[in-house]
Amino acid sequence: MQSYMPFINEYWPFIAAGVICYLGAKFLYQSAVSWDPNPGAARSYETPDKVAEADDGDEFEENDGQNPELSSALPWDLEHVPLEFKRLPVEETIQRSLEFYNLMSTRRTVRFFSSDPIPADVIRNIIRAAGTAPSGAHTEPWTYVVISDPEVKKKVREIVEEEEYINYTKRMGKV
Questions:
Q1: 158 in any annotated domain
Q2: Alpha carbon of 40 to those of 33, 48, 56, 59, 120: distances in Å?
Q3: Residue pair 139/52 in contact by the 8 Å Cβ criterion
Q4: Nearest 5 degrees, angle CA 22-CA 24-CA 27?
Q5: 0.85 cut: is pTM over it?
Q6: Which of 139, 118, 167 has its CA nearest to residue 49?
């Protein structure tokens, strides 16, 4: 050790600077490696099923009746209805698919709302049918709104047309 003393005595500022630079670089590297620019994104991908199981609760439980507008659209005691698949004969499948095609081929995009009154039972049945639509792991709770006020209908149309214009001119390219 004595033989190195003249060297250390002569070059101690450089040695100290080297040690400080090494420790600083090591610290910066470790902090850069552990830094997460997207908190929460570093977790492995979780399917909607896993997220729903992890939550294991419902955001509506926190309501405690303080805000009646924030409540589940479904009853708490709603029972699961299992799928009862019934395989149809090929001939019937072909016939039904043709009927479905013929019905669907009559559909058209409309730009105006009808002013004709629609019976409330028809609206209820349409909503009931739409409510059977599947959603990804039941994580997209469907919400349906029935609008009867002509002014609100007009505003909805304006909003939809504005969004459509933006979609065609900016998102999907020039028309």
A1: yes
A2: 16, 15, 19, 20, 46
A3: yes
A4: 110
A5: no
A6: 139
